[in-house]
Amino acid sequence: MALGQLLAGSGMFAAFCAFALVSSITPGPNNTMVLASGVNFGFARTVPHLLGISIGFSLMVALVGLGLGSVFTALPWTWHVLRAVAAVYLVWLAWKLATSGGVQDRDVARPMTFLRAAAFQWVNPKAWVMAVGACSTYVLHGNVWLNVLLMAGVFAVINLPSVAMWAVFGSALRRWLASPRVLRAFNVTMALLLLASLWPILAGHHA
Asked: Residues 69-93: what's their mean pLDDT?
């Protein structure tokens, strides 16, 4: 009996880790923005952005696991408010990215700060889907508090290197995008991808 419970628990943990990895490393608003940040500012200046994503999202997972996600069920109108705020903010970010200057403006422009990146998770539709999906599907421990800590901890460990890979890739592309015209085209492309992430909001999908 104990062995069966152990095997079941390890299987659940492995499945959750796989979910955390796939959901963290696949394209979304966070990864699109850190890729663009890596190109425009380099990896070192993108580190606060990366830490803000990882810590901010882990906090979100903890709060959703403690019952915040049930607010959408009890008060459906809150989901519509979130969708509206997220849509407006993502459009604004896409506009800022598309109209950002070229190489000559890099010393003036600033990458996203730790606090802004952490706060962005609360209007990031993919982050909400990940957090609510994880907390409603996986149970890593029978104790609610330990379960929340485990989930938040696993996401913190897996999410940071996952999003960092996108920043590293963007930083590696910097020398290939040295031309202001090419950089502008890249930023416009990233802005369009950011707008494409609005589809789940406009389609009305939610976890």
From this structure: 75
